[in-house]
Amino acid sequence: LGGTFLFSSCKDILQVDSNRVDYEFDKLTLNDSVYSVMGIIKKMQVIADRTVLLGEVRGDLLEVTDHANTDLVEIANFSEISENNRYNSIVDYYAIINNCNYYLAHADTTLTINQYKVFEREYAAVLGFRAWTYLQLAQIYGKVPFVTEPITSGDQANLDNYPFMDIKQIAAELVDDLLPY
Prior knowledge:
The protein is built from 5 helices and 4 strands, in the order H-H-H-E-E-H-E-E-H.
């Protein structure tokens, strides 16, 4: 089985200095739901290559060459990863998790049209996206802050408000959400 890396610094993972959220609302509309899920998928594409690289560079079957950049060498040598390493961006993972949390908090899972639950498939997909992202995050960083509510203000972004969990604890927390789907 793989090892855990100790990436430095979690201090900026929950920064909320963005002005991109103009308002908050109680329930998503049908159009909002589609665009929200597409936005989450777009953010997942940001971490996809990095996640594969982090897994493969740590693998037993790969050896970095003399031409590899220092970021990859740091990872391959299982040394502490510096803050300026381009693959050390925990913020990207929490951007996905926060968007998933926001969607899950605002999707109306009771909305039905012709006895069809409108948001059920998207809701299940977003639960899966959040679980996968958390598992990748914990695999890379070890114990991480576990946040299940959307963070929309600076007061909520204090890391002391959230428990730090490892991959087993996170899986135990998220499995009950996924089982019905």
